[in-house]
């Protein structure tokens, strides 16, 4: 294949991925903003804050306070390194100033071979969106290491997540081999720590995402503030 043809087709592949990913990022933002409006109305005694990212130095500092016996063992990271899940971090604070992280939300889109087929293009190797999910999931589990719950939700969609795809097995592996498309919040299966991973071929609507995010956030609020 001529280099120019390869570049054109590769550019087309990334154009498809970028346009779909941007839509998903927008959808999760809409869902989180609607959730915020709902929570502020239902829980007037709490103040809610949505942050897009969390510094790794802050995470490590918190872990050092929680586990002082390991404080000298944690690695030093660059101050500009951070976690930035697509749906961000949602915090709730009560009137006494107790601030708790009640939701971390993520979306992942992987696989464009169905779109490429309609354009007569050859199949591409399966993507690495879930590898990026794995990195964030490791960080999230560290954040909630001292908690008895993990209010983390990830919505995944795309050709790579169709039924009987081996890529889905990778996601199951990340979830400590617990099932997908089910809400897991409280750590009821220790030493295993399954989380809420919702994966399928079809895209998730903002309505669907908001319902699941609401269930998780409200359970976290009950856990921390009841």
TrEMBL record:
InterPro entries: Restrct_endonuc-II-like, Restrct_endonuc_II_EcoRI, Restrct_endonuc_II_EcoRI/MunI. One of its GO terms (biological process) is DNA restriction-modification system. GO terms for molecular function: DNA binding; magnesium ion binding; type II site-specific deoxyribonuclease activity. Gene3D superfamilies: Eco RI Endonuclease, subunit A (3.40.580.10). Transmembrane segments: none annotated. This is Restriction endonuclease. The lineage of its organism: Bacteria, Candidatus Ryaniibacteriota.
